[in-house]
Amino acid sequence: MMTNELDEESVGCESQAEKTGVINEVESESGTPLNYCDICGKSFSRIGNLNRHKRTTHRGEKPYRCDICGKAYYEACDVRRHRRIHTGEKAYHCDVCGKSFTDNGALINHKRCHSGEKPYCCTICGKSFARSSGLASHKFIHSGKKPHQCDICGKSFYKTEHVTIHMRVHTGEKPYSCDICGRSFSNSSNVPKHKRLHAAEKPFRCDTCGEAFSEHKELTTHKQIHEEEKPFKCEICGKEFTEKDIFITHKFSHTVEKQYRCDICGSSFPERRKLTAHKIIHTGKKRYPCDICGQSFAQSGTLTTHKRVHTGEKPFRCNICGKSYSQNKGLICHKRIHTGERPYKCDVCDKSFMQSSYLKFHKYIHTGEKPFQCDICGQSFNHSNTLTMHKRTHTGEKPHRCDVCGKCFACTSALTVHKRTHTGEKPHRCDVCGKSFSERRDLTSHKRIHTGEKPFSCDTCGKSFSHRCTVALHQRLHTGEKPYRCDVCGSLFSQCSHLITHKRLHTGEKPYRCNICGKSFNRKNALTSHKRIHTGEKPFDCDICGKSFSHTGSLNVHKRIHTGEKPHRCDICGKSFCEKRELTRHTRIHTGEKPYLCKVCGKSFNCTSHLSRHRRVHTGEKPHHCDTCDKSFASTSLLTRHKIVHTGEKPFHCDTCGKSFTRKRTLTYHVCIKVKK
After folding, report:
1. C-alpha–C-alpha distance, residues 662 and 671, integer Å
2. Keyword annotations for this protein (predicted)?
3. Of the candidates 45, 338, 361, 417, which lies 20 to 30 Å from 140 by C-alpha distance?
4. How far apart are CA 38 and CA 420, in angstroms?
5. Within 10 A of 630 (CB to CB), how many other CB atoms are there?
6. What pairs with residue 603 in β-bridges?
7. Phi-psi region of 352 (alpha: psi -120 to 50; beta: other; left: phi over 0)
8. Residue 671 sits in which domain range?
9. SS3 state at 178
10. CA nearest neighbour of 291 among 303, 305, 301, 280
């Protein structure tokens, strides 16, 4: 019986509160209030509301106390409502979805979710709200007033509950926890959002494209892509934005007055809270320790971000491409890739950047400043991160480990690129030919194939190159420098990659395998060229005769037929060659070097083609077939010689008597006889 009385009183109290909100709204616009407070002058439509106002606001009376936790309230109905937190009682049920509530007012507000009713309308902009409190808070946007202030850092808020939540930043209080993983939160609304990560639940679906989201605000932002709506406009430059946080960040790129100055180092900040956070740097106080690794932080927000390193959580998701980030500022910077926005401009050369830090370090190019010096070798750098990575060349430290193959790296960017070898991800796509690359720098280099740009030139011979590193390697032709030595045979090389490839001759390693025919290669570019045999692709055309080639090297060598160029000269006998490999093979005539060894009989050869041909003596392989008689041969030269039998061709002519022969050696023998006579 007691419960029913409490319910009736509670309903009456809550209904009255709802009614009061509506009446105050109406009468404040259309009627003259009858009851005035003689202390502050505020007016009320009902005498009961005036009395309550005096008792609570001016006298601070809270006569109704909870007998369980001792918390005090202005109204008896507030105590009854509060007690349900302890009892867990939710007596008010929604007849649409079945959800339960502790008080009738909450149920009435909830039902408006189903009905779509928004009875509280703003008289300035016309926006409607389901609750009177929502309208009251909204009106502060027009007035610019934030009446509720944090007495620790001075930050202001529209609502008192926002101050309560904000205060937990200072106290570290996190009263709401996830019952699955135990993680705690300062705001109750974050718990259901977090739980969706466990359930992989995405209840908010776009009715245009069908993409689903775990949070309603993500869906709202996503919908602006379809609507092309950009509701946030910069009043300084007129630029429009789809999201508020990107808009706020953009505004700081203009000249903003920084009125809060640090009295220790002189740094200025646009907000008091940022100054307060900054001052902790000078005190050295780090009162927020990580309970996983023990590392301490000066700010609770930094600790929260740090913990995502351990949990792997990336709650900030790009609604365009789906990429996730552990920090909101990472997402903001990433989105500029899609929008093309570069709000930070260099006042020297007008170059623009996506991040202020990029602009800062760019300016060192103009000033020549390199403020970060290595205390081991004295080398200076214009970026602290570059110095950190450089120091690892001295220490050998490689802290970033691939969790797939265990390989370690000195920097995160190298690990990120490496991981793409496992995933096959190639996020950087050429907009000309559609080819994709795992690294941005590879795409930049590739684009020069289309543009023909060769911005790097050799200061000795003037030859131009599309890559800076290629110039450095080319210059070793002039200097003769070969810093890389094979510890097996002593051969010297101008490039490290050439030494690595060479060593595979000794080990027999062929790590690059064709997935079509199974053939293996010791060089990646050899595999790439080989695959064109299967595809028939010949992307490189001669602009003189139109002949096509499967790779650039073959095209460059072919062009020398037209130009007559033979750039590779033997410094022993002076003979010149079109190709470097021809010179290398020729040089072995002088040195007697035969680096290619047959593992069956031990015989050595000066080039791989001779070794391959020799191996067929042991294997009996004859891969070259005559299409006239089906006879097979071990080499192309033997097949060519055989074909003369069918054609009757005698291509070798004696200049003295005009006699012709099918074989060169027969002609040589014929000439010798003539000379002897």
Report:
1. 14
2. DNA-binding, Isopeptide bond, Metal-binding, Nucleus, Repeat, Transcription, Transcription regulation, Ubl conjugation, Zinc, Zinc-finger
3. 45
4. 73
5. 7
6. none
7. beta
8. 625-676
9. coil
10. 303
Phi, psi of 91 (to 5 degrees): -85, -10
CA distances 655 to 378, 651, 658, 674, Å, are 72, 12, 6, 11
- Maximum Cα–Cα distance across the chain: 144
Cα-Cα-Cα-Cα torsion 519, 522, 526, 530, nearest 10 degrees, comes to 0
Query: For residues 184 and 535, what is the distance between their CA atoms, to the nearest angstrom?
Result: 57
Q: Which of 593, 598, 618 is nearest to 508 (CA)?
A: 598
- Distance CA(445)–CA(468), nearest Å, equals 10
Using DSSP, state whether 296 is helix, strand or coil. Answer: strand
Residue closest to 539 by CA, chosen among 615, 428, 437, 435: 435
Burial class (CB in 10 A: 0-12, 13-18, 19+), 67: exposed
| CATH number of the domain that residue 666 is part of | 3.30.160.60
| One-letter identity of residue 507 | T
Interatomic CA distance for residues 588 and 585, integer angstroms: 6
Alpha carbon distance, N-terminus to C-terminus of the chain: 142
Task: Identify whether 642 is part of a domain.
Answer: yes
Distance CA 670, CA 143 (A): 111
Q: What would the two tokens of residue 208 be?
A: 């245009």
- The whole-angstrom separation of Cα 53 and Cα 42 is 9
CA–CA separation, 217 vs 610, rounded Å? 70
φ, ψ at 191 (rounded to 5°)? -65, -55
User: What's the gap between Cα 194 and its chain centre?
Assistant: 23
Both structure tokens of 465:
């190159």
Work out how many domains the chain is built from and give that number.
Answer: 1
**Does residue 665 fall inside a structural domain?**
yes
Mean pLDDT within 287-303? 77
Report DSSP letters for 518-571, one per residue.
Answer: --EESSHHHHHHHHHHHH----EE-TTT--EESSHHHHHHHHHHHH----EE-T
DSSP 569-629: E-TTT--EESSHHHHHHHHHHHH----EE-TTT--EESSHHHHHHHHHHHH----EE-TTT
Q: Specify if 11 maps to a domain.
A: no
Q: Crossing angle, helix 2-30 and helix 132-143, to 10 degrees?
A: 30
Average pLDDT for 390-404: 83
Each residue's pLDDT tens digit, 173-230 = 777 788 777 777 777 777 777 776 666 667 777 776 676 766 676 676 666 556 555 6
Q: How far apart are CA 13 and CA 299, in angstroms?
A: 43
3-state secondary structure of 310: helix
Q: Does residue 649 form part of some domain?
A: yes
Beta strands, E only, 336-438: 344-345, 352-353, 372-373, 380-381, 400-401, 408-409, 428-429, 436-437
Cα within 13 Å of Cα(587), Cβ side: 13
Note the pLDDT tens digit of each residue in 456-487.
Answer: 888 888 888 888 778 888 888 888 888 888 88
CA–CA distance, 540 with 548 (Å, rounded to integer): 6
Identify the DSSP state of 354. Answer: S
Q: What is the DSSP letter of 23?
A: H
Least confident of 20-24, 335-339, 560-564, 610-614: 20-24
**CA distances for 164 relative to 70, 156, 205, 302, angstroms:** 19, 12, 32, 20
Phi, psi for 484 (deg, rounded to 5): -105, 120
Sign of CA dihedral 356, 357, 358, 362: positive
Query: ∠ CA(663), CA(669), CA(675), 5° rounding?
Result: 140
The runs of H, that is alpha helices, within 412-523 are 412-423, 440-451, 468-479, 496-507
